[in-house]
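Hey, I'm writing a tutorial for new members on how sequence and structure tokens pair up, and I'd like a real worked example in the thread rather than a made-up one. If someone can provide the structure for the chain below, I'll link this post from the tutorial.
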Amino acid sequence: MTLAQAGTLWAALEALPRPTLSALFAAGDRLGRYSATLDLPGGPILFDWSKTHLSPEVEELLGAIAEAMDLAGRRDALISGEKINNTEGRAAEHTAERGIGKDTSVEEADALHARMRMLVDAIHEGALGEVKSLIHIGIGGSALGPALAIDALTREGAKLAVHVVSNIDGCALEAAMKACDPHSTLIAVASKTFTTTETMTNAASALEWLREGGVADPYGRVVALTASPEKAVEWGVDETRVLPFSETVGGRYSLWSSIGFPVAMALGWQGFAAFLDGAAAIDRHFIDAPLAGNVIVRAAFADLYYTQARQCQTRGVFAYDERLRLLPDYLQQLEMESNGKRVLADGTPLARPSAPVTWGGVGTDAQHAVFQLLHQGTHLIPVDFLAVKTPGHDLDPVHHQILLANCFAQGAALMAGKASDDGARAYPGDRPSATILCDDLNPATLGALIAFHEHRTFVSAAMLGINPFDQFGVELGKAIAKQIEAGGGDGFDPSTEALLAAAGIGG
């Protein structure tokens, strides 16, 4: 089938009748069809998509679109290491970091993991002296993933304190340095190219902090995480403390590589290995499960239905667990940088909506901030709820009972609504949500959750015909900023020129 035929199917999807969620539940066993539990290394995870508007008719058309766009073939190309990132001429081999992929790529990833493990174990055994803290410096995927994993998995203790710094605003780095002793602190510099302006500027300031703190060999306290090891050595890091990763691993997919060094330092290697195992289990489900019963494909089908047929411009993600409070931030980059495109993989214009705006928060805080709009606003916003059956604290169980009750109540209320003669107290209902419920939150569970969302994002991209593995949209503003920094701040619009003058920047 051709792209034009897929376009006809998209039009047919838009024209389908739109039964309410209540009607869909009345029509048959929705739980049996749209809810599934996967038994995974970290424990069972329930994926409940029954409160979405998926139906056999919707799935039939989306399945036909998946066939037209060769979703199965694209999945196989991803896993086998073909150059599916066509605009940059390389593969996208993050699954190889988890042991799933082309044999040679898996072998390379295993060797680099072994190298990282040797350094992690050596540091834990005292090879670099007493190490109580690690300041991890990166930005984008080099920071969001480590920050999420550290925050989620180390609340009950860690082998050392990890501070993730990404913002070029010196307040961020200063706060981390104030919490650390330079004589017992390591600096991890994470940059795929080892040229990222924000990261390298922060790294230089961290080195100066070590010098001013009396550290005789500041570079001896630095570990480099990069796909450009020669640049790290040139910068001053000894090659024994350079942890490379493959050029075919994209930044926002790099947590599984040496970018995960701070996670391994905080958890120990066994914890990091469990993190990889959880993700690999999801990889295997994505590869082996038929598309019709694949929880990843089902989630992507719902995403596409709402953006393409119902014109939903945003998707909300709400974690009803404080340990997952950074997951919405992580997913923002994963989904919006991957699929926020306006052209197809061949460079021709994308005629359909691309990714929705991903946003969210943490329950129950968000209920008292944004849920008014979700329940009674004029926008239709599909929502994902994430919750964990086992609490992450030892306080009175009533805390967790209230938390979970609120999570499940919100999904029920969005669907059912409530009629009232008083319009201000009326809830229209028929508002979709999906729920992911984990038995426990541990390294393997978190790895599975992240991999699930990676593949979910990929499926949407494949069905739209876009390349989710480049991100040229981030470059223009960075180039202009460098032009300004170099003193070339002339020729801008009057507003920009006035702002530069008011801030005393440029000529």
